[in-house]
Structure prediction request, 291 residues.
Amino acid sequence: MRSREHLPVALTIAGSDSGGGAGIQADLKTFASLGAHGTCGITCITAQNPKGVLGIQACEPMIVRRQIEAVFAELRPAAVKTGMLYSAEIIHVVVEFFKRADATGRASSRAGSAPPGREDGGLRRIQKLPPLVVDPVMVSTSGARLLKRSAIDLLKEELLPLATLVTPNLDEAQIIVGHDLKSVEDLRRAAKEIHRRFGCAALVKGGHLRRGKEAVDIFYDGQTELLLTAPFIKGVSTHGTGCTCSAAVTGFLALGCCLPDAVASAKEYITQAIAQHQAAAAHSVLNSFWR
Prediction:
């Protein structure tokens, strides 16, 4: 990929995966592969490998907030994603930051530039919030719970209305809409219901349907609907695919793509990352640098 004089910045707010396949590690690899400068706010440290999650240690909400503020102060992102947020306290920090940033941006737009030298927790002279992609990480591929049950309602009621896009897999979409999804048509209805209820676009991923020969995702933003398909690739670990897909959307948004194009490009990106997987020790891993 050609070098750029100025790299766009992308921010991920998510958990760390010691196995390197998902979370912050997957997101930063994806950003780098697309030509964006990756920044991060780490929400949790996990002890995990491709077989499972051995332990989780949540970060203090204050340090999560300070990481986000530090990035916005000097490396203002062109796009942001959230991944594993784990607790209501951490979700609250993210929600309050973006609500405050939105209020600051609207006030700045009315009053003009902020006074020279004035700073407010990384919100100096914010004119417009970057797009926010929410990957509603709830359960790991191995079955470990990555979002406390007590935090689900806050994620739905407070974070999703701030999002540009939410990217649930089948299980997460069922939790969000409150009923089972068993067909592609169910995915389509779920995407429209999410948009109607929360005001954000939805990419509902149907990889877990496992009924046909294709992995089918549905995108809906209130105007555009996309049916995105790719062949199922058997025998490859899917650990980290959700993180990588949402990071790819975020990376393409940071590069200046419109949302439908970013989603379509991310579908191709994750399909090829799976198809061109590589071996690390005894495990297959996604090839984030296939491009």
In short: The first helix runs from residue 23 to 34.
